[in-house]
Automatic annotation (TrEMBL), chain A:
It comes from Rotaria sordida. PANTHER family: ELECTRON TRANSFER FLAVOPROTEIN BETA-SUBUNIT, ELECTRON TRANSFER FLAVOPROTEIN SUBUNIT BETA. Pfam families: ETF. PROSITE patterns: ETF_BETA (PS01065). Keywords: Electron transport, Mitochondrion, Transport. This is Electron transfer flavoprotein subunit beta. InterPro entries: ET-Flavoprotein_bsu_CS, ETF_a/b_N, ETF_b, ETF_beta_N, Rossmann-like_a/b/a_fold. It is found in: Mitochondrion matrix. GO terms for molecular function: electron transfer activity. Heterodimer composed of ETFA and ETFB. Identified in a complex that contains ETFA, ETFB and ETFRF1. Interacts with ACADM. Heterodimeric electron transfer flavoprotein that accepts electrons from several mitochondrial dehydrogenases, including acyl-CoA dehydrogenases, glutaryl-CoA and sarcosine dehydrogenase. It transfers the electrons to the main mitochondrial respiratory chain via ETF-ubiquinone oxidoreductase. Required for normal mitochondrial fatty acid oxidation and normal amino acid metabolism. ETFB binds an AMP molecule that probably has a purely structural role. The electron transfer flavoprotein serves as a specific electron acceptor for several dehydrogenases, including five acyl-CoA dehydrogenases, glutaryl-CoA and sarcosine dehydrogenase. It transfers the electrons to the main mitochondrial respiratory chain via ETF-ubiquinone oxidoreductase (ETF dehydrogenase). Gene3D superfamilies: HUPs (3.40.50.620).
From TrEMBL, chain B:
This is Short/branched chain specific acyl-CoA dehydrogenase, mitochondrial. Its EC number is 1.3.8.5. Residues 157-252 form the Acyl-CoA oxidase/dehydrogenase middle domain. It comes from Rotaria sordida. It comes from the Eukaryota.
């Protein structure tokens, strides 16, 4: 019985952009800055498509929470191979204050509504690096979670996942429905080829609001300030291990 | 090196074109959409542009120098480009293409050329020269035979120029003689791009030299045809990854069903098809301009002399701003010519202007960027010198700058007052 997958995609500042902190320290400059799909989410989408190609999955639903521009990100997901898209519209101040817990609640609500068997997410977004959404979705739904996946094998309503952890690689088996988050080495995402871009035009994109899902997206964390990391100081050269040790002692580091 | 295609006689060509008063061109009046800007892309166009840019950065850029030295692309890369659908952009979907518009091809060519002129050039030649011949002129049987392959895995070459005919294209000497169910072709073509990797050749040959250009006909010649021989590769100044060879026809037996269109109309086809190709070259040139510029400006912001960034010297700022303005102008000329063509409005003059301006500008931009880089600009470790060499052919192929000027002048001459 082929499974149904929900993939979350986030519109984040493009990885190649040089980030600028706003002068009033309330955030980073996003106006006019190039945005694209979060790279880990691309890996999640690619994994979902591969599962569909292997006939393990029968339907892929892409979801994104944010302003109207998220539709571009969703269209890219459709062009890569997702079957339909859901845009949860959150804009303006609400979007600025949108935090992982709220997104997790939205994704959980949609997962229940669509009755999916698997939720695939990127392990973290490259703008806030929270690394929370996947874990919190699993918690809210009381589903098993397999995060930092570098290999996924699905058979008989079970997923065998190799996880990248600090100590090395850990292989676990989880029963579906489950939440899996994609790590860097899970796969190499494809480029959307022209025929797929063309087909994407006909695929449906639904729009809804947090209210429609009965979710309260109010923030629970307050961000106090954003600052640039301290400028890198020049280092010094040492000519021997002894000199290194004495220098470190001088600086009170050892 | 691409063919040097030329009008046989501008006057003759222009007799078929209606004179125009000098009023701003009326755009598609049935559309209710407000034209916002030439940067108003459709979603498909935007996605294509972004995908080519990323693919180029990840899969082409690391191998640019290697391909230049090898004088060609790796076959896997060519197939990857086919698999993305980028060599059949305008081919109708029923033949395996994507059925997109010329503007999409232009965007793909521009993004490709920002990375490597040969990458952009490959996309250009197939989409704006070879495919249009089949899409617009081939009969159903020929379309069914060739278009699916051109979309999927077969590169095509266009053969017009010869050792003794470039701008004066229609004084070509390759002959064709009807013999039963075959045409026998004899002659030599020169400057044929992709000859080494193509599976099909569109050859212009004269069936009736007495009738001068009115005997020129177009033939579809498969690579494995008896009598077709690819000559040796030309050693060129630039665009080296795009191989260019002579192609020899020695009693080459072409089946009669491979005549494209009608006998004696080849010159008309060449003239009308090549106008699109012109916009493609303009796109390649603006890609080179922008690619070189984008790789140079960051350096001017890092490099310090006399205690400040070289970008901060007013002299530098003026030159940089001036170049940026001209690149913008060239791009808008190109985009507009493509939009006109897609709207089925007259575009020949605009295409000539775009090609002329963009190719001349590319020489200037790349040269200035080498200056901005200082000594590093002269080094082969940096990309500027390659762009500088690659763009030189832009003012020469697909109609030299002088020929473009002739074209534009005749349009102006024909205006009613």
């Amino acid at each position: 019985m082929a499974i149904r997958i929900l993939v979350g995609v986030k519109r984040a500042i493009d990885y190649a952009v040089k980030i600028q902190v706003k002068t009033d320290k309330t955030g980073v400059v996003t106006d006019g800055v190039k945005h694209s799909m979060n790279p880990f989410d691309e890996i999640a989408v690619e994994e979902a498509i591969r599962l569909k190609e292997k006939k393990i999955a029968q339907e892929i639903i892409a979801v994104s929470c944010g302003p109207a521009q998220c539709q571009e990100t969703l269209r890219t997901a459709l062009a890569l191979g997702a079957d339909r898209a859901i845009h949860v519209e959150v804009s303006g101040k609400d979007y600025e204050m949108l935090q992982p817990l709220a997104v997790s609640k939205l994704i959980s609500a949609i997962a229940k509504k669509e009755n999916v068997d698997l939720i695939l997410l990127g392990k973290q977004a490259i703008d806030d690096d929270s690394n929370q959404t996947g874990q919190m979705v699993a918690g809210l739904l009381s589903w098993p979670q397999a995060v930092f996946a570098s290999k996924v094998d699905i058979k008989d309503k079970q997923a065998e996942v190799v996880r990248e952890i600090d100590g090395g690689l850990e292989t676990i088996r989880v029963k579906l429905p489950a939440v899996i988050t994609a790590d860097l080495r899970l796969n190499q995402p494809r480029f959307a080829n022209l025929p797929s871009i063309q087909k994407a035009k006909k695929k449906p994109m639904a729009k809804m609001s947090p209210k429609d899902l009965g979710v309260d997206i109010k923030p629970h964390l307050e961000y106090l300030s954003y600052e640039e990391p301290p400028k890198r100081q020049g280092g010094g050269r040492v000519s021997s291990v002894d000199e290194l040790i004495s220098k470190l002692k001088e600086k009170g580091l050892i | 090196m691409n063919n040097l295609r030329r009008f046989i006689s501008i006057t003759q060509l222009l007799r078929t074109i209606q004179s125009k008063s000098w009023v701003p061109r009326q755009c598609n009046m049935t559309s209710t959409a407000i034209n916002q800007s030439l940067y108003n892309f459709s979603e498909d166009e935007r996605m294509l542009k972004e995908t080519v840019a990323r693919f180029g950065k990840e899969h082409v850029e690391p191998y640019v120098r290697e391909m230049e030295e090898a004088g060609g692309f790796k076959p896997e890369l060519i197939q990857a480009i086919f698999d993305q659908g980028w060599l059949g952009i305008e081919i109708p979907t029923e033949y395996g293409g994507s059925g997109f518009n010329l503007f999409s091809s232009i965007l793909a060519i521009e993004e490709g050329s920002k990375i490597d002129s040969a990458f952009g050039g490959l996309i250009d030649l197939q989409n704006t020269v070879v495919n249009p011949f089949f899409i617009q002129l081939a009969n159903d049987a020929q379309k069914a035979t060739y278009l699916p392959r051109l979309a999927k895995n077969m590169v095509g070459s266009f053969c017009l120029s010869e050792p003794t005919s470039g701008s004066d294209a229609f004084s070509l000497k390759t002959t064709a003689k009807k013999q039963g169910d075959y045409y026998i072709l004899n002659g030599t073509k020169m400057w044929i791009s992709n000859a080494e990797i193509s599976g099909v050749y569109l050859v212009m040959a004269n069936l009736n030299p007495q009738a001068k250009h009115k005997g020129i006909s177009t033939f579809i010649v498969d690579r494995d045809t008896e009598g077709l021989r690819i000559g040796k590769r030309e050693k060129k100044l630039g665009l080296k990854a795009s191989s260019t060879c002579m192609v020899h026809f020695d009693d080459c037996k072409v089946p009669a069903k491979n005549l494209l269109g009608k006998e004696g109309e080849g010159y008309k086809y060449a003239i009308s098809m090549l106008n699109e190709g012109r916009i493609g070259i303009a796109a390649q040139m603006i890609g080179i301009c922008q690619g070189t510029f984008d790789k140079t400006i960051p350096y001017t912001k890092e490099r310090k002399q006399f205690g400040q960034r070289i970008f901060d010297f007013q002299g530098m700022q003026h030159q940089i701003a001036s170049l940026a303005t001209e690149i913008e102008a060239a791009r808008l000329l190109t985009y507009n010519a493509a939009r006109l063509r897609d709207a089925k409005l007259p575009f020949v003059k605009e295409a000539a202007m775009a090609k002329l301006y963009a190719s001349e500008l590319a020489g200037k931009v790349t040269s200035k960027c080498i200056d901005f880089m200082g000594g590093l600009g002269f080094s082969c470790e940096y990309p500027q010198e390659k762009f500088f060499r690659d763009c030189k052919v832009g003012t020469i192929y697909e109609g030299t700058s002088n020929m473009q000027l002739n074209t534009i002048a005749k349009f102006i001459d024909n205006l009613e007052r």
